[in-house]
Design a protein that fits this description.
The structure holds 2 protein chains of 2 kinds. Chain A is α/β, with parallel strands linked by helices. Chain A is globular and about 50 Å long. By secondary structure, chain B is α+β, with helices and mostly antiparallel strands. Chain B folds into 2 domains: about 200 residues, no CATH class; about 120 residues, Barwin-like endoglucanases (Beta Barrel), CATH 2.40.40. In chain B, strands 1, 2, 3, 4, 5, 6, 7, 8, 9 and 10 form a 10-stranded mixed sheet that branches. In chain B, a hairpin with a 2-residue loop joins strand 1 and strand 2. In chain B, helix 1 crosses helix 10 and helix 8 runs parallel beside helix 12. The radius of gyration of chain B is 31 Å and the shape is elongated. Classes of the chains: A alpha/beta, B alpha+beta.
Chain lengths: ~220, ~375
Amino acid sequence: MIELTSIHKAFNQGKHNEYWALAGIDLAIPEKQVTALRGPSGSGKTTLLTILGCLARPTEGRVRLRGEDISGLPERFLTEIRRQTFGFIFQQFNLIRGLSAIENVVLPAYPTGRPRKALLEKAEALLADVDLAHRREAKVEWLSGGEQQRVAICRALINDPEALIADEPTANLDTKLAGEFLGILESLADKGRTIILTSHDPLVIESDVVNVIVTLRDGKIVEQ
Amino acid sequence: MLMKIWIEKQKHLIDFTLASLARRKGKNLGLLFIYGLLVFVLASVALYTHALRTEAQKVLAGTPEIVLQRLVAGRHDLIPPGYIEKIGRIRGVQKKEGRLWGYYYDSVVKANYTFMAPRDMKVERGEIIVGPALERSRGLATGNGISFRSYSGELHTFIVADVLPQSSELVSADLVLMHEEDFRAFFKYPDGHYTDVAMSVANPQEIRNVALKLMDALPDSRPILRDEVLRTYASVFDWREGIMLALLSAAILAFGIFAWEKAAGLSAEEKREIGILKAIGWETGDVIKMKFWEGLLISLLAFLLGYVAAYLHVFHFNSLLFEPVLKGWAVLYPRFTLTPHIDGLQVATMFFFTVFPYTAAVLVPIWRAATTDPDTVMRS
């Protein structure tokens, strides 16, 4: 689905603190599979994830989405691709405080201009899927960590994206909740979604849900 | 179809904006209050002085085009007998007549009245017609008698024949109209002398020429044009407005700093939210539009609230708060209700200077925050 060719990514380029987070990545993300990126802190997992999810552009190299080169696209187009193709689940969940669960879920759909009624129906269905229908009007800051993550999952799915991107999804969950998360992940994978995640949680990496494991170190792939 | 999507999108943005405003209720209500207060004060001053000016113009419209005064050593002096005849015939002057008026200090209410012997109104001997302020301060009514002690020490008693209408109060508040002979007797005004000469000129183009001819014919005279009086009134009101605004400038400045701080200083929470919105698929433009709606809603609401409150303050509560500064130039304050008058240009100017800067101030930092890379949220 996504192909990366000799991807390099530098931060603070040209400055004294220049830092290369990725140093030549060649990777193909298979469609309808769960791919896990693992590696120690600073190995470049998150940076690679941002490039795969069109949140950032590589300093060098090519990104192809379904065969089309998207590495040189201006931000506007990249945003549109991101919105249509990817749903994001962040490590800190990144929900908007003060808004209810359902309002958080529909947020990514606002720029699409879909009618509000249809959006709310879809959001309700998603919340029901993760057993959160009863918490739809609760402000997100009142929800538990597990509930917050499920809201974040629903939010990632509101635009019905082809792929889900999750950054350290179990980092803030205990074993039981992590297990529940894997359950949700499995059902999503069964429905044919492409899932890319970073993790150094053995519970995730060693689970049967994950099809492909990519190991990174110092900005390079060391094992696949 | 595209239009429908666009409208739906704007509706979503406004929805989100309203939800955002409600989330920061305290901050936004505070901002709305201070902002509205500023508009209220500015609009009150503007509406009030504008209405006063309009009122003065309306009143002065019926006054003579030229008033001729005689000067001795640069000071106003009486018009002696035969002086009016000296003017001769000047083309364009329709009517010229001597006027009799003067000031009287009433120690009872510690106020000055204007005594006048009108030409166009008949007042019987021994009677007076008084202005509304006098009616109030001395508790007079038609048929009452009142005595004034003249400057020569004699006591003169008059019967109040009538009270002037409220509608003319701006200029007639302290007026006392009396018969010419009563006036002369009261002030010991020599026969044949007048206070000044009023002239009417039909063609406004001719007024200046007539004034020049008058100065030629009577070098010791000073013609005062109605336009000049109007200008003087205007500048008096402008001056008062200026004083008011100068007094307010500190408040305006404080508001400016406050608004800038509120608008320009994005909180960490707001920055985080913008990052999230961008990461989940909002374009920079969507974020800016949303914040634009936010700024516009606040400033528009503040403007409307402030302006309506100012309108009520000026036209229904008689400018309770600024009355002493804006109105008083006589001891007997005229009490009058201004005719509601709104000037489109004035509203537009005020709108431009309040709504526009705030909305702009909101946008600058948002633009900066909204153009940051969406991946920053992954790293927070």
